[in-house]
Predict the 3D structure of the following.
Amino acid sequence: MLRSRFLWKLYAGYALLIVLTALVVGALVATSIVRSAEEETDRVLLGDATLLRVMVAESLVGSDRAGVSEREGLNDPGHLEARVRAIATATGSRLTVINATGEVIADSNVSPSGLDNHGNRAEIVAAREEGIGWAGRFSRTLGQRMRYVALAIYEDGAIQGFARAAVPLVSVEAHLASLRRLVLLGAAIATIAALALAFVVAQRITRPLRGLTAAARALSDGDYSRRVVAADPADELGSLADAFNIMRVRLREQLETATLEQSRLAAILGSMVEGVVAVDREERVVHMNQVAADLLGVVPTSVQGRRIWEVTRVHGVAEALREAMDSDKPAERELLLPGRADRVLELLATPLRNGASGLRGAVLVLEDVTTVRHLETVRQDFVGNVSHELKTPVTAIRGLAETLIDDPSMPEEIRRSFLDRIRDQSLRLSRLVIDLLSLSRLDADPSGLRTEPTHVQAAVRAAVRAIEPMSEAKKIRIAVDVPDVPVRVLGELQALEEVVSNLLENAIKYSPEGGSIEVAIQADEREVAIAVADHGMGIAKPHLDRIFERFYRVDKARSRSLGGTGLGLAIVKHIVRSLGGDIEVASEPGVGSTFTIRLPRHRGAA
Ligand code: ADP
């Protein structure tokens, strides 16, 4: 409490006022008391002089009255002096009688013979002029400062002498000093009492303010529960406390609403698939959701309040935001994420305006468009590949047919070989179209295959049976190893058969004559694995990942000569994926390849 600056300021104001008032009032009172004391002294002095004048007037008048004076013994200097002394004893003043020439005739304190002419004394000079004269000076006769008053004694308009009264100023001054002391003491006591009272009053005024300050401080620290209680609800401080309490409740409500809004916004931004970064006018990060942080490789909590170009080195980010703010238009960018190969980001920065009052910042939406861009490329490549694959047999057929037409006299043998080639090319065309159709059917409805529980052994046996003419032509033996108990998966029998026969066909195509192929089914509680292993040419490592792509062949010419379309494994993978499974390959060039399909096992009723 005693550290309250306001209390001390208020109190200092009070104290200054009190001390000034005490000084002014004290000075005024002291002056007025001194003045009245001086007036009183003068009045008494004048009274004494008047008395003296009356008493000694006759002694100084002319010869016509000498008889009376003589009778009364007034002209006798000794007598006069005795009288003067008697009056002086009664009044307490020093009394002097001076004749018109300035000689001292009688004095209550000193013998006149020892005194010089008083005609030049200031009070006498003034009295000669005006009838009365005042003076204050040091009396050499008495050795102290005196206050004098002299009255002229007239007889028929002429000055006969002077009656003078004097008091030592020491006694007057002593009296005045004691009076001054009294006033000073009174003023000091009043000041101390007033200062003490002022302190109490200042405290009473500042106490509720201290309460308010503490509550306001608590408010700024987030404590909204602290009520301010006013001593007197009716006065201004009471109204202030009331207003404060209302403000406190409103603030709490607003904060709750703002917090709710913020958490809602954070939830929305957090659940977005796109990354969102909001910056203020100075490019300081106001918000960054987790997706944006992941894409830019930063921790969202550590970037708050920092400039965006400090936060991320990804070049286009700060640029796009700056451009949007400078141009006041959305800015778009597409960029490759540095350090993370092949990730493609699409950025859209939009300026944020606050009504007419101007720019508030910008919002950046980041989208990882890698998959989209990849799919676009794949689609473009696919269309290009299809066109190319179709063009080759069509061109060949057309060339052969035209030669046949142009040369009717062609020997029968050559004509026959031309027709054989036309048939081969048309077969290739039809295989291609069939494969493309199955792919497009799978693309259109990928889940359409998981319709019925299918007996895996049955599908494998059917595929092996169907491929037998081809294997026998190359004298390749196919060994089948299947479990005794029926194993089922969810999917069309025909699709499963197509998968196995495609793998068997490849195994035969890429195996030497007289080779062998093993087909095995293994099943556990959850999974069925179908493996097709050959001992053929194998596949080199760099191609292993790519052989499932559409139209990808390790050796194009060889595949074509073997009647391949480059779509077989793509179809296989597509079907397997549609059945909820996956395919993998292990291969070594010159040793052989093993393709393994894994499908979820179906344990329900057949
Ligand atoms: P293709 O119609 O050319 O056989 P696929 O999609 O069936 O097309 O296969 C893609 C490529 O994978 C083939 O061109 C071939 O180079 C390679 N390949 C597939 N199966 C085998 C295998 N069993 N042994 C060696 N290479 C294979």
